[in-house]
Amino acid sequence: MESNVQNQHAFALEDRLIEFGVRVITVVEALPDSRAGNHIAGQLIRSGTSPAPNYAEAQSAESRNDFIHKMKICLKELRETRVWLLMVQRKKMIDSAQRLKPLLGECEELIAIFVASIKTALHNKNSKAPNHNSANAN
Asked: Does residue 133 sit within a domain?
């Protein structure tokens, strides 16, 4: 039963990440065709669309360490995306830069989810590590 709940959570998070990527693409398409706009568009399209496929890879990780590594990649990309979105907003590079607030809010929520997931995975990894001291306790 718990595995079914975990699967539903994984699919819900994957769907959120896909939707996040789609929304980032919409922002990228609204950026000006300028040197700065094109540079930021390239960076934003890479960082903003990569968390979904990286998360999908994490779901098929070959080990706990592999899972943690892939989750950390998602977190890194989300943090990078947040910075690019803030630059776009502060420079007012798109009409209605206010429109970015909900996307930035979603980015913050996703970052918090990944921070918590990584902490949990690290805790679980450390709690399941064999206790080498128990053999020497006698």
From this structure: no
| Domain coverage including residue 91 | 2-122
**DSSP type of residue 46:** H
- For tokens 């590594």, the residue is 69
Residue 40 belongs to some domain of the structure: yes
Could you tell me the two tokens for 33?
Answer: 């065709």
Chain segment 64-96, per-residue pLDDT in tens? 999 999 999 999 999 999 999 999 999 999 987
Q: Is the pLDDT confidence value at 6 over 70?
A: no
Question: Residue 12 is which amino acid?
Answer: A
The CATH number of the domain holding residue 34 is 1.20.1440.60
What is the number of structural domains in the chain? 1
Which residue is listed with tokens 């902490």?
A: 119
138: which 2 tokens?
Answer: 């006698």
Position with higher pLDDT, 135 vs 59: 59
Q: What amino acid occupies position 112?
A: A
Q: Does residue 14 lie in a domain region?
A: yes
Domain assignment of residue 135, yes or no: no
Phi, psi of 133 (to 5 degrees): -80, -20
**Environment class of 48 (CB within 10 Å of its CB; exposed 0-12, middle 13-18, buried 19+):** buried
